[in-house]
Amino acid sequence: PVPLAQPSIWKSSVFSSWASKYPFERIGELALQVSSSGLSIPFEGDTTKIMLRPNSVFLLGRELEVRNQLADEVTSLRMAGPFPTIPFPLNSGVRPRNIPLGQTAKNKHDPSDTRFRIVGNCSAGRPGSVNDLSWCPRLVQFHLRACHIRDVLASLGPRPQMWAADIPKCFRHQQNRRDLLPLFLYIIQTQEYGTEFFVDLMNPFGWRASEWGWQCMLALILWHLAPLQYCFGYVDNFFVFSAHDESSPSHSEKVSHILSSLASAGTPLHEVQESGVSINALGWDWDTSGPTTYMICTVDKFDTFCRYLSSWFGRSHLSFAEV
Asked: Is the backbone peptide bond immediately before 82 cis, with ω within 30 degrees of 0?
C-alpha cells in the first residue's frame, strides 16, 4: 500500500481564522483544503482508462540521476516508492496514469551549469491531460516585476529599508488527496534497478492546481498582512519596504509582525535577507545604503546578456521567444 504523506506543516486553525475575515468565502474554503488534507477538486476526465506515457527524450542517459532525485523525495516523505509494479488497483476508482518526467536546467542561462531539476509534464496528452481535466478557479494573479520594486523604493525617498525572504519548496508542502494519488504516478527505468514506480504524495511543480492552491493560501496571508504598508508577496517570495525614518510601525516592527504571522501559520522561511540596505530580489541586487538607490545588474545576469548579444550579432532576425 502507498504510505500516508507527512503531516501538513500548515496550521489549519490559523488559516481558518484568517479565512473567516476574508471577503471571498470560496477562496477561504480552498485555502483551508490546501492547508490540511489537500484540494478536494473534481477530476473531469475519463477515470476508467489507464494512461501510461513515455518520459521526455531529454532524460536519455540521465535516468539514474532522475531515479536518485526521486529516491531523495521518498526519503523526505514527499513521495512513496519505489514499487516494482503499479501500486494501485487497475479495475476500481481512479485508474492510474503516469505523469511523464522531464527536466529543466537549474540555471538555464549558463550552459556550463549541468545541474537540472525534475519536472512533471502534467499537460501531456492534451486535451485529456491531468492539467486540462483538473478543475481550476481561473484566479487573477498578481505579477511582481523588478520595475515595481524600483518604483516603490523611489517613492520612499532616500535610504529606504528592505527585507526579503522566501519559502523553500513551496508547493511541495501541499498534500495530494489520497483519492487522486493514481494521477500522480512516475515511471523510471534504469539498468541498475529496472522499471520502478513512484507516487507523488505532495503537489508537483507543473500541476496547475499546485500554484493556484498556494495562491489561495497566499491571498489569506496577504489579507492578514494588509495593514502593513509596502508588504508584498509574490509566489513564494515576501518583501517589506519602509521609508528610512518610518515609525508607527517602524521597519523592525513590520518585519517582526510578518515573521510572527508566518510562523504562526507554520510557514518556513529561508534565505532571509535582513540587513535593511542590501537584498537580492527578482534577479537584481538592490542597494539603499546611500542617498541614491541602486538597482544593480548581477554578474550572472550581465554575463547572460553578453552571451545573448554575442550569439545574436549579425543575425537577420530573432524569434519571439528570444525577444
From this structure: yes
CA dist 153 and 159 (Å) reads 9
Rg (CA), the chain: 22
* CA separation for the pair 43, 33 (Å, rounded): 16
Distance, CA of 150 to CA of 82 (rounded, Å): 48
**Interatomic CA distance for residues 56 and 59, integer angstroms:** 6
> Are the C-beta atoms of 69 and 186 separated by less than 8 Å?
no
Rounded Cα distance, 80 and 6, in Å = 11
Q: What is the pLDDT of residues 275-305, one digit of tens each?
A: 889 999 988 999 999 999 999 988 888 888 8
Over the stretch 58-116, which tens digit does the pLDDT of each residue have?
A: 888 889 999 999 999 999 999 999 999 999 887 766 678 889 998 887 776 666 777 77
User: What span, in angstroms and rounded, lies between the C-alpha atoms of 183 and 234?
Assistant: 28
Instruction: Give the global pTM.
Output: 0.87
C-alpha dist (Å) from residue 315 to 35, 311, 321: 51, 8, 15
> Strand pairing of 116-120 and 101-105?
antiparallel
